[in-house]
């Protein structure tokens, strides 16, 4: 949701990573054994990174279950503060009506569960979005590096495919070979330019949402510290 404020750029980037980003005249480079091996390695990395959303789910559940469970087991002492904040809820909160029992307590509890669920959903969606995008870009840069490392060998293979009679007298100074070499190098350059454009677009997509997130977080921390300071002053 945080990156959908510019759907045009977001859809463009995801359309690009849905297919082969690099287009090479000598064939589909992603079918080479080395590139397939790279893709499998990144798939294993991605599985490890999926522990992050799982950790978020565990932490989100702990935020609700641990405080509520401890209050049920140990007791909750004072039910409300002087300001009317219900201390029995997982997250102490003020309501304009009693929420320590009955349907009101159930509704207040459900509202906090839904709030935490929505927050987890937003965070996990952002993490999965970034994980998918970053892993694909990482693969593309590895493929780009591979295309440059094998540029001479691929150019020679294309050259001999078109001019098999020149195999015995092959020389890198041959104008035809130089033309093929330049053509494949141009494909690598276009591949790199596409990746740079994708990175710039993604940077533009996340700049403002990240800034808003930092400002909101800083504001929340500031308000929390202010509340603690006021509570200490009242004591």
TrEMBL record:
Gene Ontology molecular function: any one: odorant binding
Where does it localize? Membrane
Q: Which GO terms describe its biological process?
A: signal transduction
- Mitochondrion as a keyword of this entry, yes or no, is no
| InterPro entries associated with the record | 7tm6_olfct_rcpt
Q: Name one GO cellular component term.
A: membrane
For whether the record's keyword set contains DNA damage, the answer is no
Q: Where are the transmembrane segments?
A: 47-69, 106-131, 205-229
UniProt keyword list: Membrane, Olfaction, Receptor, Sensory transduction, Transducer, Transmembrane, Transmembrane helix
Q: Per UniProt, what is the membrane topology?
A: Multi-pass membrane protein
Coiled coil ranges: none
Highest taxon listed in the record's lineage:
Eukaryota
What is the designated name of this protein? Olfactory receptor
Give the species.
Answer: Apolygus lucorum (Small green plant bug)
Give the gene name: OR72
């Amino acid at each position: 949701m945080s990156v959908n404020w510019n759907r045009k750029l977001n859809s463009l980037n995801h359309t690009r990573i849905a297919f082969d980003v690099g287009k090479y005249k000598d064939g589909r480079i992603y079918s080479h054994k080395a590139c397939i091996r790279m893709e499998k390695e990144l798939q294993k990395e991605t599985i490890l990174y999926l522990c992050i959303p799982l950790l978020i789910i565990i932490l989100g559940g702990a935020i609700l279950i641990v405080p509520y469970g401890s209050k049920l087991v140990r007791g909750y002492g004072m039910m409300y503060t002087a300001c009317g904040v219900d201390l029995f809820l997982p997250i102490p909160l003020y309501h304009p009506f009693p929420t320590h029992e009955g349907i009101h307590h159930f509704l207040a509890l459900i509202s906090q569960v839904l709030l935490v669920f929505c927050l987890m959903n937003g965070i996990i969606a952002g993490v999965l979005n970034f994980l998918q995008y970053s892993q694909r870009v990482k693969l593309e840069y590895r493929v780009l590096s591979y295309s440059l490392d094998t540029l001479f060998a691929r150019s020679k293979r294309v050259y001999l495919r078109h001019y098999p009679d020149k195999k015995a007298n092959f020389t890198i100074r041959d104008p035809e070979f130089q033309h093929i070499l330049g053509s494949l190098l141009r494909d690598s350059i276009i591949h790199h330019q596409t990746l740079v454009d994708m990175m710039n677009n993604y940077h533009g997509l996340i700049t403002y949402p990240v800034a808003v997130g930092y400002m909101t977080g800083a504001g929340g921390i500031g308000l929390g510290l202010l509340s603690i300071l006021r509570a200490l002053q009242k004591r």
